[in-house]
Amino acid sequence: MSSPLTQTVHWDLTYDVHLGSTWGRFMQGLREQKILANSCPECSRTFVPPQAYCESCFVRTEQWTELPAEGDLEVFTVVWQGFTGGPKPPYAVGGIRLAGADTLLMHVVTGLDFSDPSTVRDQLPHGSRVRAVWAEDRTGQILDISHFEPAG
Amino acid sequence: MAQRAAVVGVGITDATSPRKQTRSHLELCQEAAWAAIEHAGVSPAELDGVVVGNIDGFEGTVLGGKHITRLLGLGTHLPMVVLNTGGTTGGNLMQVAARMVRAGTHQRVLCLGGPTFFGVRDLQSAINTNSPMIVEQPLGMGGFHMGAFAASAYQARHGTTVEDLASVVVADHQKASRNPYAHLRYTLSETDVVEGTPLSSPLTQPMVCPVSTSAAAMVVASEDVAAARRTPSALIRAMGTSSDPYLGGGKGDFAVMENLAALARRVYALADVRDPRAEFDVVEVFAPYVHMQPMQLEALGFCGAGEGIDLIRSGATDAGGDLPTNLSGGPKCTNAGVAGELAPYAYTALQVMGDAPEAIQVPGARTGLAHGTGGSFFQFENLAVFSQLTPQEQ
Amino acid sequence: MTNRVRPGPVHVVGLSCTPLLAEQDAVLDELVFDAVSAALSECALRKSDVGLSVLASMDVPDGRSISSGLTTAAAAGYLSDSYRLEADSGSAVAAAAQAVAAGDVEIAIAVGVHNPEHHAEDDAGRRRFLEQLSNLAFEPAFDRPVGMTAQTVYGMQAAHALHSGEVSLDDWAELSAAAITRGATGRRPGRSGPVTAADVLASAPVVSPLLDLMLPAPVTGAAAVVLASPARAARLLGRSAVLTGIGQATGDHTWTGDWLTRPGATTARAAADAYQNAELVDPGAEVAVVELSAPTPALHGPYLAALQLQGLAPERVSPSGGLASAHAGLANGIIRLLEAVEWLEQHQPRGRAVVHSVDTITGTVSEESTVVVVEGI
C-alpha cells in the first residue's frame, strides 16, 4: 500500500485568557501562599477553585474563606505516557479534598516511587493526607502551588 | 404541529488507523452520508436540514463540519447546524435533528459525524486544550489521564483487579471481531491486556480506545416518512442530555456515574421504561476506556454498584445474552471522534431496524438504548431510547 | 418542496444582554451566567424551570476546545438538557424554539456569548485576531493557504458590487454614517456619534474598497432569551412577544461564487421558510421594522431585497444602528431580537418585526442566515 498523502498544518495561536474577578482573587491569594475558596449563599457548598456562581442554585457566590493547604488525596493516576508539550512522564495527578471544601482541587502529587507500576496504587491509599508545597517564584497561577506531597 | 421522529437511514464506513487510511476526511464523510441517504430511501433533494459535528482544535480546522458539509453535494442553501459539545457531539447530533423534526418544521434531516482525530499528531496534547484552562490544564492531563481518575477511584471503591478490567477488554474485542465496520478486529487474552504498556494507572494500552478514522451518518425523519418505508425504522421514543460542572474537581465522587444515573431516570420516565434490564433488547454505550462500561451498566440500572464487571463476565452482555451490549465492539475497538460518538446511536438504530451487519444483529430486537459521553472528565452524558416502527399496512 | 407543517407559536418571555464593551474583565461563563440569570429574572423563573438551554459560542475565540464545558452550567445546563452550537445565536434561538414547538419542553433558553480571549488596544487589533481565527475556519487545502478571511470575502463582494455601477462608495458612506449616528443615541452603542459620510470616507482603509467605519464595531458580551409555550407564557410576567416563523439556511462554498454574485441568496431561502411559517404574504406591507445584520454597507441592499423589505423606510431598518454600531460576534442574533422586541414595545406593541442574523466567521462564504418573525401581543 502506498503511504497516504498528507500536508503539515500547524496552529499558532496566542491567547490572553481573562481571569475575571473570582479567579483573579484566587490567583492573587496563591501569590500570598493562601488557598482561597468561596461559598454558595443558598446551599452553602464551598468551592475551590472558587466559582463566580453556584451551578445548582444558580445564584452568585458570596463569602470567601481561606482553606488549609492540606487535605485528603481522594484519587490519583500515574501518567506513564504523556503528551507533546506536557510534563515529562512519569508523573502523578490527583484530586485533593482540602478540609472544608465540597469540591476537589486537582494537582500534581509527588512522593511516589515509580520503579514498579504495579505498586503505585498502594503507596498512597485512598484518603492519604497531602500538603501543598509552594513554588519559590509565584506569579499568580495554579503552579504557584508547586505540587502536593504526602504529609507524613 | 409537533410530530414524532425516527431514524430511517444509517451509513457507517469501515475503519482503520490514520496511518493506513487512504481516503480523505471528505471522502469518508461522503461515503457515510450517501450510504445513509440510500438506506433511508430518500433523495438528497428531499433533505431539509443537516446537523454536523466537529471539535475545533482536535481536527486542525475551525468549524470543519461547515466546509465539509458544503462539499458533499447535497444541494445549495440547505440549513446546516454545526454542533460541538466535545465527546457528546456525535450523540447530540440526533438530539438536535430530532427536535427539528419533532417541531414540525423539518421532515428529513441528515446527521453527519466525521473522523475527528484524523490528522492531529498528538491527540492527548490536543485533548489537554479542553482541560479547564488556568486551574486544571497546566497539570498535564489528556483524555485517558482524565479517564484514569475514575478507573482508579472505582478500583479503590470495589477492590477491582486489573484482571477484572482486562476481562471487559477481552469481551469487547470478541464482539468487534465480528463487526465488519470495527477497527481493532483481533482478539486478546486477559494476559495480553494486563501486560500491555502502562499509560496512566491503572490503564494499560489495550484498555484504551484506538485512534480510528471512519465516518457515520443518519437520516432522521418524521413518523409519516418512516411509516411510508417498506422496512422498519427506529422510532425515537425518548432522549435527553445532562451536564456535570466544568471542573473535574466538581464531580466529587469519581467512583460512580451520578450524572448518567440521573439522566437515565429522566429518560426512562419519558419512555415509560420500568425494568431496564428486561425491556432493552440491545444496548450501545460510549465506553472508550475499560472501566467505563461496567460503571455505565451500573448507572443505567442494569445491575448494582460494583456489579458491572460480574454482569459482563456472566455473558449477559454478549450476543445471545439477555442484555446484548456493544455488539459493535464499542468505542474501545473503534473510535474516530464524532463518528465514534454517533456510532452507539447508529448501531442501536440499525439493530431495531433489523439492518445491523448480520454477524452482530440481535434477532428480533425491538427496543434499544444508545448512550454518549464526553467533555473534560466526561462532564456530559446523552441517552436515547429507540423502538421498532413497523411499516404502515399498504 | 416538502409538505411543511406550521409549528405552534413560541413565546418570548425574557430577554437580556450584558453591557457591550470592547473587552470584558470576566470569564466567559460569568457573562453567560449574568445574561441568563437576568433573562430568567425578567419572567420570574428559576433554573429548575428550564427544560433546555442552547448555547452559541465558538471554541477558537473562547481559547479552549469544547469551551461549552466551561459555559454550559452558566447557561442553566447543570444536570439538565443542554447543548452548544458553533453558530450565531440566531441558530440557538431556532433550536430552543423547536424544542418548545415540539412539545418537549415548556421553557427553553438560548444564549450567545462573545469575549475573545485576546487583549488588544484598538479595533484594528481586535479585528486582526478575529481575522486569524477566520482564516482557520476556511477550507484548509485551498482557501486557508492563500489568506482567505471574512474581511477578504467582504472586500471582494464589495468590489464586485461597486463594479456593477449600481451602487457607489458615497452611498455606502451615507448608510454607515446614518447607522452609527442612530446607534450612538440607542441603548447599546459600540461607536460614538454623530458621524458624517465624510468621516466614514476619511476613516482608515481596511480591505478595499471597505473602510474602517464601514465594518462592524467589534464589541463583546452575552445575550439570552427565555422562550415558553403559549400555556406557560400565559402565567408568566415578562416580555410579550411571539415567534411566529423561523427560517435558516447555510450558504455555498467558495468555489460556486454565490457568495460573490448572489450574497442575498442564503437569506432569501431562510426568509422563505420563516415567512411561510408566519403566514407572512406581503412582507413590505405587513412588517413594521427589521433588525438587519449587514456586516458591510455593500450587503445592506442584497439582504433587504432577500427579505423583500427594500421598500421599508430607512429609519425602520435597524433602528438600533445594527452591526455598524455594535457587533458582538455570535451573541448578535439574540441582540438583534432584543432590539426588535424593544422597538415594538416602544413604537408598535402589536406590530410585526423581522429579525435577521448571519454569522461572520467566513464572510458570505458558507454563511448561515437566520430569519425570525416576531410579533408583539
UniProtKB/TrEMBL annotation, chain A:
Residues 64-134 form the ChsH2 C-terminal OB-fold domain. InterPro entries: ChsH2_C, ChsH2_Znr, NA-bd_OB-fold, Thioester_dehydratase-like. Residues 28-60 form the ChsH2 rubredoxin-like zinc ribbon domain. It holds the Pfam family zf-ChsH2. This is DUF35 domain-containing protein. The lineage of its organism: Bacteria, Bacillati, Actinomycetota, Actinomycetes, Geodermatophilales.
UniProtKB/TrEMBL annotation, chain B:
The keyword Flavoprotein does not apply. It comes from the Bacteria. Pfam families: Thiolase_C_1, Thiolase_N. CDD domains: SCP-x_thiolase. Keywords: Transferase. InterPro entries: Thiolase-like (IPR016039), Thiolase_C_2 (IPR055140), Thiolase_N (IPR020616). Residues 23-183 form the Thiolase N-terminal domain. Residues 257-377 form the Thiolase C-terminal domain. One of its GO terms (molecular function) is acyltransferase activity, transferring groups other than amino-acyl groups. This is Acetyl-CoA C-acetyltransferase. The lineage of its organism: Bacteria, Bacillati, Actinomycetota, Actinomycetes, Geodermatophilales.
Automatic annotation (TrEMBL), chain C:
InterPro entries: Thiolase (IPR002155), Thiolase-like (IPR016039). The keyword Ribonucleoprotein does not apply. One of its GO terms (molecular function) is acyltransferase activity, transferring groups other than amino-acyl groups. Keywords: Transferase. Gene3D superfamilies: 3.40.47.10. The keyword Transmembrane helix does not apply. This is Acetyl-CoA acetyltransferase. It comes from Klenkia brasiliensis. The lineage of its organism: Bacteria, Bacillati, Actinomycetota, Actinomycetes, Geodermatophilales.
